[in-house]
Structures are given as C-alpha cells and as structure tokens.
Write a structure and sequence with these properties.
The complex is a heterodimer of chains A (112) and B (114). Chain A has strands at 5-7, 10-13, 19-24, 31-37, 44-50, 53-57, 64-68, 73-78, 87-94, 102-103, 107-111. Chain A is an all-beta fold and 112 residues long. In chain A, strands 2, 4, 5, 6, 9, 10 and 11 form a seven-stranded mixed beta sheet that branches. A four-stranded antiparallel beta sheet of chain A has the order 1-3-8-7, with no helix packed on it. Chain B has strands at 2-6, 10-14, 19-21, 23-27, 31-38, 45-50, 56-58, 64-68, 73-78, 87-95, 103-104, 108-113. The A-B interface holds A 2, 4, 31, 33, 35, 40-45, 48, 55-56, 58, 90, 92, 94, 98-106 and B 32, 34, 41-46, 49, 51, 90, 92, 94, 99-107.
C-alpha cells in the first residue's frame, strides 16, 4: 500500500463535459504530481503542486488545472473534455525534497 | 531535454531464467534514473533508483540495474524470473535537483512462462 488513494476508480464522460478527479495523499506529503497514462504508453507529467501552488507543468493545455488542499488532498480538473483525454490519470505524492514518489492506483477516464 | 528509450516493448522469459530489460537515456544534466513496475490495477511501485552514488544499484525483489555513462544505458536485470514478476516496467529519468518531474519511457511488458 502506498497510502495514496484516488477516486473514483472509473469514470465515463461525454465530449465537452468537465471532470474532477480526486487524490488523497499521506500526511506530510506536501508535493503532489499528476500524470496521464494513455493506453500502451508511459505516464506523462501534467503538473505538480507544492504547498498549494503550481510548481511546474508539462505539455498540457490550460483546460487541465489542479488544486491542492492543506489536508494533503488534491484535485485534477479537466474542462471541455476531448476524446483523446481518455486515459488513466495517476496521482503521486512525496515528502518535500525527496525523489521517491508514492503513486495511487489511478482513475480510468473514458470520454465518449 | 531528457528522455528515455526502452528498447523492447515486450519481453518473454521462462520462470527461473534471467531477465534483461533494456533502457537508454538522454539527458543534458546529471540524471536521476529509476525503474518502476506497474501491476494490473495497482499503483506504480519504485523498484530502484540511481543518483550517482554507485553505478550498480540494487532494488527490491532481486532486481538490479547498472548505470553505464559511456553507453548511456540503465538496463534492469534479475538472475531468476518468478511468475509474480510479470508486469509492465518503466524506465524513468528526472533531472537531479529538478524535483519530482519524471519522464517515463513507453514501458516493457514482461511475460513469465512456466
């Protein structure tokens, strides 16, 4: 067990809709990252949050946004869903300054 | 820019035989290199990491990897495969001191047969 939980585990949305994915990290993990893993691919870095501020972003458009809360939970929001957004979304957290990430099991998002 | 290339998308071995999963990296800076494993319906798990302390890195479950700067490689090995090793394996690079922004390879699916 990594101590990182994600919800929901599966989600089906329609193109154009908005979605919120949730992650709960271990106490003390004030750095959280989100990754998108398309079918048959490796995870791709979306963005990272540290102390509730965005601290780095990958090559993803602004319709991907996030929030981090003081209670070590976080959200990934995606607006105007597109078919290509269908993927496994992974949350990963860590202690400050440590490279070891603890990954959740992910949310499988299907956009129809 | 940094990147990793996993040379095999699928590897199949017999139980009890050695495992070799190949990875080459590219990085303009001193890299940190990792191997992660992903079992179905489970989160990614760190197998081992290289951060310049020693070129031969030992990880969990009998896996190890050797950093070879001259070959820009970081291959993952295990002397004897077990059925439970069947999973997807990812070679990963990050810039040392660059926080936790990881760049993943495309993965190698390891199949272990009886």
């Amino acid at each position: 067990e990594t101590g990182v939980t994600q919800s929901p585990t599966h989600l089906i949305k329609t193109r154009g809709q908005q979605v919120t994915l949730r992650c709960s990290s271990q106490s003390g993990h004030n750095t959280v990252s989100w990754y998108q893993q398309a079918l048959g691919q490796g995870p791709q870095f979306i963005f990272q949050y540290y102390r509730e501020e965005e601290n780095g972003r990958g090559n993803f458009p602004p319709r991907f946004s996030g929030l981090q809360f003081p209670n070590y939970s976080s959200e990934l929001n995606v607006n105007a869903l597109e078919l290509d957004d269908s993927a496994l979304y992974l949350c990963a957290s860590s202690y400050p300054g440590e490279e070891k990430l603890f990954f959740g099991s992910g949310t499988q998002l299907s956009v129809l | 820019a940094q990147s990793v290339t996993q040379l095999d998308s699928h590897v199949s071995v017999s139980e009890g035989t050695p495992v070799l999963l190949r990875c080459n990296y590219s990085s303009s800076y001193s890299p940190s290199l990792f191997w992660y494993v992903q079992h179905p319906n489970k989160g990614l798990q760190l197998l081992l990491k290289y951060t310049s302390a020693a070129t031969l890195v030992k990880g969990i479950n009998g896996f190890e990897a050797e950093f070879k700067k001259s070959e820009t490689s970081f291959h993952l090995t295990k002397p004897s495969a077990h059925m439970s090793d069947a999973a997807e394996y990812f070679c990963v690079v990050s810039i040392t001191g660059g926080g936790n922004k990881l760049t993943f390879g495309t993965g190698t699916q390891l199949k272990v047969e009886l």
